[in-house]
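Troubleshooting log. The previous structure file for this entry was overwritten by mistake, so regenerating from the original sequence record. Sequence copied from the archived sheet and checked twice against the printout by T.R.
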Amino acid sequence: MTATKIFITSGTGEGATALSAFHRALRSAGIHNLNLVLYSSVVPSGTEIIEAAGKPFTRHFGAQGNVVLAKSVALKLGEKAVAGIGWVMDEGGKGYFVEQKGHSFDEVETEIKKSLDDMLLEEKDVSGGLRFGSRIEEISCKGKPAAAVAAAIYSVTPIG
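Regenerated output below.
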């Protein structure tokens, strides 16, 4: 079996509108040029998680990007936008992602941990040698809309 690679990225942005702030956060994460298709949370067996920088994931403008995505927007002066994803994987490389958003780093970090712990309470498919990870991004609103994103990129497929 060939190992699946899932890339973790994140970014922040500000804009004149919530939507343009979100676009700039996607640009900062390197995924602004993708048509995003949202996945739920299952990490297939044999997966390798790779922490990525914010460079573009493809030169194919408009390619399909299959992602787990967390998004947060702050509109009021001083408010924070915080987005994070967390994951748990067993020694066989299978597991789960969770995505959380909030208005403080601690809130998002706590919710990620609580969600993963709760998901594992009755889990039989993911066990043994568990490894946890997370990526959390935050930005404060300084007068114009601000956005944070965190994403797990499963695959990128050119369209057309």
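Residues 4-54+63-157 form a domain with the Pyruvoyl-Dependent Histidine Decarboxylase; Chain B fold (CATH 3.50.20.10). Archived copy saved in two places this time.
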